[in-house]
Design brief:
The structure holds 2 protein chains of 2 kinds. Chain A is an alpha+beta fold. Chain A contains 7 helices and 9 strands, in the order αααβββαβββββααβα. Classes of the chains: A alpha+beta, B alpha/beta.
């Protein structure tokens, strides 16, 4: 029951804070060990990863900042399902206005799924970069790598100053 | 804070494509390394290629249709190479000026967005055609420079990795590339033909309008649009000089032993 409440929270797009609040209604022993269960982190190269602690899977996308700087996306190159990637590896590219921009793995792990919808609708990346235009899902091999990435506030600052 | 200049170099002899790609890669790696100490240089390579058809990232090299067409084009006397740039199939060869700006888009704060980069490149090309030759260009939704709805004179195809650019643009200067372009649907644009500067300025003979004569003017306008000084690259420069000289020597040797075919060998 605990898990399914969390899953619903994710689906409705509630923030990490809301998730923690729901978790507080769980058993007392669970309460002492509460960690953030849904984490969103950012890279210098404008990728984002939403990490679900319960499944150890991170959903990778580019950020809204990235899609607006790219222009209209006409083609998205994605990694192969099942391939093993290391943090920082090139895992695909986004093509817009004749510029192919490489994208990099924000975390190490195995690619579990890629967003097939992007093949027919590359524009999803512009319309909904951090949601419907997700790129791939990686099963993390090392969750501590997330500590190397930026939080939302740090990323916002990075965009303003970089 | 004044930004550093862009260092440019023009290659005298048409370059083989694969080796030039190798040079771009090498310069890219040097930039990546030196960027850690903010000691990297922005570069603009200006050159011609030996006849070659290149494919963009979207075109799978092992697609049977691509392989079949590739063999046919090779029999005509051109190389066929797959690349990681954006855009589709195009032709490069003598008579066409090719430019590879190897820039760090992150030099400014905020960084230059890709859309902005492509836009400026297009603006620089259009400005050069207008100011140098009085050629009016038309607006077009497609990337590149068009003379009218069905005539394209310049193409763009770029790759960006960690904000460092490779590949770039090409402008048709003489009529020599036209027969080669006719063998493919360049840039995936059906019904579009390739124009060139010579036909627009109604000059006779291959020597009157020439790629070498475009260099200084184009470099200057590129600098103007990007807000940077353009400085000739000193080949004694220890990081970049040797690699550039090596490619130039290889191209000269190749031209001596295997001069570029001027027209496609059509059987």
């Amino acid at each position: 029951m605990f898990t399914s409440v969390l899953r619903q929270a994710t689906k409705s797009g509630l923030s990490a804070r809301a998730v923690r609040k729901t978790a507080a209604y769980a058993s007392p022993s669970r309460q002492t060990f509460i960690r953030t269960l849904i984490t969103k982190k950012y890279t210098q190269d404008h990728e984002a990863v939403v990490f679900d602690d319960s499944t150890s899977v991170g959903t990778v996308s580019v950020t809204d900042y990235a899609q607006s700087s790219l222009g209209d996306v006409v083609f998205v190159e994605l990694p192969t399902v099942g391939s093993e990637v290391k943090q920082g590896d090139q895992i695909g590219a986004v093509e817009s206005v004749k510029a192919a921009s490489d994208i990099y793995a924000p975390v190490s792990g195995v690619v579990e799924a890629v967003n097939e919808a992007l093949a027919g609708q590359p524009g999803l990346l512009n319309k909904s970069p951090e949601d419907k235009g997700w790129l791939c899902k990686i099963k993390l091999s090392n969750a501590t790598e997330l500590d190397n990435l930026m939080t939302e506030e740090a990323y916002k600052e990075h965009c303003e100053n970089s | 804070m004044l930004l550093s200049p862009i260092f440019y170099h023009y290659f005298r002899t048409p370059l083989p494509y694969v080796q030039t790609l190798g040079l771009q890669e090498k310069l890219h790696q040097i930039q990546l390394l030196l960027r850690r100490q903010n000691a990297h240089k922005d570069i603009l390579l200006l050159l011609q290629h030996r006849p070659v058809y290149t494919l963009g990232r979207r075109q799978q090299a092992d697609d049977p249709e691509v392989v079949a067409e590739g063999s046919q084009l090779q029999r005509m006397g051109a190389d066929v190479v797959s690349t990681k740039r954006g855009g589709q199939i195009t032709y490069h060869g003598p008579g066409q000026l090719v430019g590879y700006p190897l820039l760090d888009l992150g030099r400014t704060a905020p960084a230059m967005g890709i859309r902005d980069y492509i836009c400026r490149m297009q603006t620089a090309l259009k400005l050069h055609l207008k100011e140098e030759h009085g050629i009016e260009t038309s607006l077009n939704d497609n990337t590149g420079v068009f003379l009218d709805e069905t005539t394209k004179i310049a193409s763009i195809g770029v790759q960006v990795r960690h904000r460092l650019t490779t590949h770039g643009f090409s402008i048709n200067v003489t009529p020599e590339p036209v027969a080669w372009f006719a063998q493919v649907v360049a840039c995936g644009l059906v019904g579009v033909r390739q124009g060139n500067i010579a036909e627009m300025t109604k000059t006779q003979g291959r020597d009157a309008v020439a790629v070498e004569l475009e260099i200084e003017g184009l470099a200057g306008r590129f600098g103007k649009v990007f807000g940077r000084d353009m400085v000739k690259l000193d080949l004694k420069e220890k990081e970049l000089g040797p690699a550039i000289r090596a490619l130039e020597e290889e191209a000269e040797e190749l031209q001596r032993t295997h001069p570029c075919p001027q027209t496609p060998a059509i059987t």
